[in-house]
Design brief:
The complex is a heterodimer of chains A (644) and B (202). Chain A has 644 residues and is of the alpha/beta class. Helices cover 53% and strands 8% of the residues of chain A. In chain A, the strands form two sheets. A five-stranded parallel sheet of chain A has the order 2-3-4-1-5, sandwiched between helices. In chain A, strands 7-8-9-6-10 form a five-stranded parallel sheet, sandwiched between helices. In chain A, helix 1 packs parallel to helix 11, helix 8 packs parallel to helix 10 and helix 22 crosses helix 23. Chain A is rod-shaped and about 150 Å long. Chain B contains five helices and eight strands. The longest helix of chain B has 17 residues. Chain B starts with a strand and ends in an 8-residue tail after the last helix. In chain B, 48% of the residues are buried. Classes of the chains: A alpha/beta (644), B alpha/beta (202). At the A-B interface, helix 11, helix 12 and helix 13 of A face strand 4 and helix 5 of B.
């Protein structure tokens, strides 16, 4: 709302009853936000409160036209607030008032009982004063006498200067009426104004009413009003002997300066002698330390206190740094919520450290380990013993998260689980054009990372990494059995990813049901998708495997050799590789080409590599020294594999 | 020392009323105390003898409210005027931001005034305070007494105010001159705040 342009200091008559209020208002208008903030003016009705704050507004606009001045009565403020809330534009309302440089709030006594308005006003006052904006308020009583108002708001209202406007004295009444007569170009016979001024009027409005009445009498009645008529016109009996106007007597008996004027004079002196720039800096210190930022640089500026140090650039620099810290903090919390509120984000002098922290966090935010590129899907040989698993895997690759979620692959060691699950991960990445983030870890690695994260307090960051993945592949998941914390974390990661429709793949040496120490909640989740088994390689698969691994081996009898080898039972793909390596080594030792005969000699010379898992070759162990070697080798493989 | 603390937004001034015995220093404080609105005045501490002479010192904390955003507090002290309380006077004078010298206008007290004024200079010098630098005003009190008993402000000024500091006629008992004096010294003290030599901040 606009300030009434008629309300100016020039047409505000100053007397002893409003001297202080006018001086304060003037000071505020000259330096908004720097002298009395907030300025609280109170008086009975009709004594010029609204005129006075209007005058502040007009003078501010005259001196600094670029400032925004808002005049509003509390009633309108409440209405606007309600309208804003009703139309869901509360934020805009706040922003609108938050931008005002000088807020003139009239009739705040109506705050009584309006809790939400009080809250909003309190917030607004904090915001405005925190940024050095000026607030001026009027009321018909001092803040402490406004009933049912939040104590915090009362202290806010009382925090600046509280001045009252009293009823005008005789001289002021005359001055007011003369000013009015001049304004309206009316002249009265000598003594009329004085006679009217002798009547006691409670306020200026009544006085104006009375003046209007005699102006009307004179202009409409056509004859001059006489001083003697005045009392009769206003129904006042017998004139008392006219009191001489009170003058400050020259005698030493009458103190000419009282406490109020003394304070007002001191206020002027203080305003002259304190440094406005220091006030601004101190305000910034108060505001930002209130916001939790360290303000040592600004405090030093205050203490060094040179004559008007280059505070503006110092403040600008400070604000820029705070802004940067703010951005960095936002960035950091996006990576890891636990980083929010870190001390470095509160100290503009540690901007560098904050940057370093964010960099560290960002690098820590690199996606979790992905699948090993060595395991490609097209190198995975399929046979009846593993085709179910492979088909499930292909379905998962085709539509991650849709068909079999989670996919749980189990089977004995060395049958290609690791290869298959890594291949799923690789294919998902390939099909997404490299965009998909597939976390692919062994359970042991998952656990180690968790422990490390617990150690350096970055569990949140660690968790976020996994939760942000597009798919999760965990190999050897049997190792989480019995690890409570790991299961707990896995459970949450599982739920998050599953809830977002992301694919989960697990590999284990046993089906979930046989995993002792696996929590029921995880077991049921593992079983909720597809549990599929991979078995020992069947002859068809063995044939493919031998063909695959003998590809690079020179042999004149390739087909026969593969057929011969495929007939032999093996427990795992790993064993197939072991057989091929052994034959190649034997052929090297013999200095001959690898033939079926050589293979037969090597493999069937009483050493049954082909021990089925259910029939351990314990009996053959004692037959030949060589057996011990081969068994040891096999045992060694198992030993390495199991702890892994 | 007077303190403008921009961070806590406080201004604190210590003003000492100095002068010969019975010149009306405590009366000045009493008058101020009586004028201060109830919510603004602290408790006046007066240590007086049975005959109401200041034994140690008077202390009147004065809260001027928030001025220019600064919580402004004045601390008014008086020293015991009698010659033999020299030690107390020195103590009270320590850290003063301004001094009001209350002179007794009675003609027969002129010598006491001069001696006390010299005593003030001496005490300040002992505390390494430059008597010419510290804010100082003079009040010629008891101007309400019959004219034949007192000297006029002009005569007193000739006799005492050789430094030409601001001086005020006063009647501390009834009030005239009391706040003028306080305002005079306050302005001098505040003016020092912005002087480069007083860049002492907390």
């Amino acid at each position: 709302m606009q300030v009434d342009a008629r309300h100016r200091f020039e047409n505000f008559v100053t007397g002893s009853a409003n001297h202080l209020a006018v001086a304060a208002a003037h000071a505020v208008a000259e330096q908004p936000g720097l002298t009395y903030n907030p300025l609280f003016v109170y008086s009975g009705s009709g004594l010029g409160k609204t005129h006075l704050i209007g005058a502040i507004g007009n003078l501010v606009l005259q001196k600094q036209p670029d400032l925004s001045v808002e005049y509003v009565t509390l009633d309108e403020f409440v209405e606007q607030l309600h309208a804003a809330i009703a139309s869901n534009e509360g934020e805009r309302f706040k922003q609108r008032y938050g931008r005002v440089d000088v807020l003139l709030l009239d009739d705040v006594q109506f705050l009584t009982g309006r809790r939400e308005t009080q809250t909003e006003l309190l917030r607004l006052l904090n915001a405005l004063q925190g940024t050095g904006r000026q607030v001026v308020m009027t009321s018909d009583r001092p803040p402490s006498d406004i009933p049912d108002v939040d104590e915090r708001l009362i202290t806010r209202l009382s925090g600046g200067l509280i001045v009252d406007i009293g009823a005008p004295d005789y001289e002021t009444r005359i001055a007011i009426m003369r000013a009015k007569c001049e304004e309206r170009d009316v002249r009265f016979e000598n003594g009329v104004i004085e006679e009217l001024a002798r009547l006691e009027f409670g306020n200026v409005r009544e006085l104006q009413g009375a003046l209007n009445k005699i102006i009307a009498m004179q202009t409409l009645g056509g004859q001059e009003v006489k001083p003697s008529q005045i009392r009769a016109m206003f129904g006042v009996e017998a004139a008392p002997p006219p009191k001489p106007p009170r003058r400050s007597s020259a005698s030493m008996r009458k103190p000419s300066l009282d406490f109020q004027s003394f304070v007002s004079d001191i206020a002027t002196a203080v305003a002259q002698h304190v440094d406005p720039w220091k006030i601004k800096v101190a305000e910034a210190v108060a505001y930002w330390s209130g916001e939790g930022y360290r303000t040592a640089t600004l405090e030093r500026l205050l203490q060094e206190g040179g004559p008007k140090a280059d505070y503006e650039s110092a403040l600008r620099d400070y604000f820029t740094r705070v802004d940067q810290l703010h951005e960095l903090e936002d960035h950091a919390t996006a990576i890891d919520a636990a980083l929010g509120g870190n001390d470095v984000f509160r100290d503009p002098e540690r901007l560098g450290e904050a940057e370093a922290l964010v960099n560290r966090a960002t690098s820590g935010a690199t996606p979790p380990p992905g699948p090993s590129a060595a395991f490609a899907r097209d190198e995975f040989e399929v046979g009846p013993s593993n085709q179910l698993a492979v088909r499930a895997a292909d379905a998962v690759i085709e539509e991650p998260g849709k068909k079999y979620n989670p996919l749980f692959v189990h089977g004995p060691s060395g049958v290609g689980k690791t290869h298959l699950v890594n291949a799923i991960g690789n294919e998902m990445i390939n099909l997404s054009g490299g965009a998909a983030v597939v976390a692919c870890v062994s359970a042991q690695q998952f656990m180690d990372e968790l422990i490390a994260a617990l150690q350096d307090g970055s569990v949140d960051r660690w968790r976020t990494r996994y939760r942000a993945a597009d798919a999760l592949v965990i190999d050897d998941v049997q190792f989480v059995a019995g690890k409570e914390r790991t299961q707990e974390e896995l459970f949450h990661v599982f739920n998050t990813l599953y809830g977002e429709g992301k694919q989960l793949v697990f590999a284990s040496d046993r089906p979930p049901r046989q995993l002792d120490g696996l929590e029921e909640r995880l077991r049921s989740r593992f079983e909720g998708g597809l549990v599929v088994e991979m078995q020992h390689p069947d002859p068809a698969l063995r044939q493919k495997l031998y063909a695959h691994y003998l590809q690079r081996v020179e042999t004149p009898e390739r087909t026969a050799l593969i057929a011969y080898l495929a007939e032999r039972d093996v427990a795992s793909v790993r064993e197939v590789i072991g057989v091929v390596n052994r034959l190649v080594a034997a052929a090297d030792m013999a200095g001959a080409q690898l033939t079926v005969a050589l293979a037969k000699t090597e493999l069937d010379s009483g050493l049954p590599v082909q021990h089925a898992p259910d029939a351990p070759a314990a009996d053959g162990y004692f037959l030949d020294d060589d057996k011990i070697i081969w068994h040891l080798s096999d045992l060694g493989l198992r030993l390495i594999e199991d702890p892994k | 020392m007077s303190l403008v603390n921009y961070q806590t937004r406080e201004i604190t001034c210590k003003i000492v009323y100095y002068g010969p015995g019975r010149s009306g220093k405590t009366t000045n404080l009493h008058y101020i105390y009586g004028q201060v609105p109830r919510d603004r005045k602290g408790k006046m501490v007066s240590l007086a003898t049975q005959t109401d002479r200041t034994l140690f010192f008077d202390f009147l904390p004065l809260d001027l409210g928030t001025i220019s955003g600064f919580t402004t507090r004045f601390q008014l002290y008086t020293v015991p005027g009698q010659v033999y309380y020299q030690a107390t006077r020195k103590l009270v004078l320590q850290g003063a931001d301004g001094v009001v010298f209350v002179a007794d206008s009675q003609a027969r007290q002129l010598q006491e005034n001069i001696e006390s004024f010299q005593d003030l200079h001496q005490n300040l010098a002992e505390q390494s305070v430059d008597p010419r630098a510290i804010p100082l005003v003079i009040q010629y009190n008891k101007q309400d007494l019959p004219k034949d008993l007192i000297l006029t402000p002009a005569e007193l000024s000739d006799a005492i105010n050789f430094r030409g500091v601001p001086d005020y006629p006063g009647d501390a008992l009834h009030g005239p001159g009391v706040f003028e004096t306080l305002r005079g010294i306050s302005e001098l003290v505040l003016r020092r705040l912005s002087a480069p030599s007083s860049a002492r901040q907390g």
